Amino acid sequence: xxxxxxxxxxxxxxxxxxxxxxxxxxxxxxxxxxxxxxxxxxxxxxxxxxxxxxxxxxxxxxxxxxxxxxxxxxxxxxxxxxxxxxxxxxxxxxxxxxxxxxxxxxxxxxxxxxxxxxxxxxxxxxxxxxxxxxxxxxxxxxxxxxxxxxxxxxxxxxxxxxxxxxxxxxxxxxxxxxxxxxxxxxxxxxxxxxxxxxxxxxxxxxxxxxxxxxxxxxxxxxxxxxxxxxxxxxxxxxxxxxxxxxxxxxxxxxxxxxxxxxxxxxxxxxxxxxxxxxxxxxxxxxxxxxxxxxxxxxxxxxxxxxxxxxxxxxxxxxxxxxxxxxxxxxxxxxxxxxxxxxxxxxxxxxxxxxxxxxxxxxxxxxxxxxxxxxxxxxxxxxxxxxxxxxxxxxxxxxxxxxxxxxxxxxxxxxxxxxxxxxxxxxxxxxxxxxxxxxxxxxxxxxxxxxxxxxxxxxxxxxxxxxxxxxxxxxxxxxxxxxxxxxxxxxxxxxxxxxxxxxxxxxxxxxxxxxxxxxxxxxxxxxxxxxxxxxxxxxxxxxxxxxxxxxxxxxxxxxxxxxxxxxxxxxxxxxxxxxxxxxxxxxxxxxxxxxxxxxxxxxxxxxxxxxxxxxxxxxxxxxxxxxxxxxxxxxxxxxxxxxxxxxxxxxxxxxxxxxxxxxxxxxx
Length: 667
Known about the structure:
Shape: globular
Radius of gyration: 28 Å
Strand content: 5-15%
Largest sheet: 6 strands, antiparallel
Distance between the termini: 59 Å
Low-confidence stretches: none
Structural class: alpha+beta
Helix content: 40-55%
Number of strands: 16
Mean pLDDT: 93
């Protein structure tokens, strides 16, 4: 029976992996070529052009009924008009076309702006000077144009020879559409060269100290001391977090943080009106209310003034407590996942506790840390259910309740629901019963229990949205009402996702250059400076020189985490127990899906600030497990080969990276 189940699981894993890859490829293709997402493709081959708008970090409001029209013009000379000529064009998002003052296209009825319009302009061209004029409107980004005019001996296409004008802005030469432009404020902050000149000696000394410590400890048998290592790691991290809170976070003005005016306005609304706002009443009122409800309750309980020292503490209690609780939850889950392996257990705790995005997000008034906490609890409980021989009704109910709390905090928690419930139900269907009928009935019961718990705990807000707006999920990128908004660049193309590296030299606001630079800069540091629109308004409580050095030191860590993901995938197929194989498959799937989700969302919401790693802060637990696997497996391999010198360098680098992170937020 075990052999049959083993082969069944293998086939199911392979099929699931193929299906997951197909879904991801299909989703990218759909976003790029089918959906309304502002993702630019080459199409007919001409380049996209637009008005030369400088990159900006602020939001741009737009009245839906008064969307400005940008006029693109191209003059050219013809000795004789060709016998036939065709214009092929696409506009982001609408087009009106005229040739020599004669309008030949207006109000085109298209299924999508991505469809190419073909217009026969035969008889519209003339000998001498000709004028192509195209008016483009776009309520959710910069108006862009892609056009080609072709005829016998004639070829005109969009390039930098075009002129662009609009009401209230001066006429200018068109610029090639570019969604990868460094932000000027990146250069106000310290670059790698500056940070090395100021802090390089400190980093070198720390490296040498850890190298000496590693050399000394390798001569001793530490196996007897390893059992309590996870407890010491948790204690050290907890004390560090408390120190950061006591010395730094309490000094931070409450008005520092991502979207902080909107978060505070939500809390003020609850305090004043004692009721939940509708999704379209303010910038952040589309969020489910749990974070704001808890924070408001603490504010009322302690009766604090926001700007006071007590207010700065109370307003941040939920975020800070949630961030630290993620570390504790990682400790609990890693203890179960890494049975009898204190080194991997401790490594997971240290990774979660020193992960920069967890540290700095927990310092600000935001719903991200609380969402991540509920997500972490759901994953912890799911791993418990998967590794248990026979999970019971209470476990199913607890998993569903944790997922319900997550979606009551932010709707992005919805992405975990199908993954968690399907993997647990699949595990039960394969392993939890003597007969196929018993397993099937238990799987259906578990699935129903979890989904009912999710709906009961977290479904109320979404039902309310549906009653008011006819939609279950509301997002502030397209709130019901007269006004919408967008942020730069307002579109993306493939090159934005195929670059990486500028973050190592100039890490702040790196999302202006590429998706991966933006993701990395917010993973390993406060790369968006608490969401401030410019570097001059940043707060002074982090050490930005050390933070800059931390980005370079963390690059190998990122590779090690990637290696840990490979180890997870291998475990999914070769772990000694079927429960262990399913658990590894589950952790690996969560990492892949969460990473993919933030990638594909930026195609629909193409804003520089959208490439934030902490949008998947809820994946801290699986990332920590992968990091622990990668870190310890590499060390084990080096030890097995007797590579003492390599281990010394490896340990020194790990210790230096951790120390730089510690000093960044405390020094």
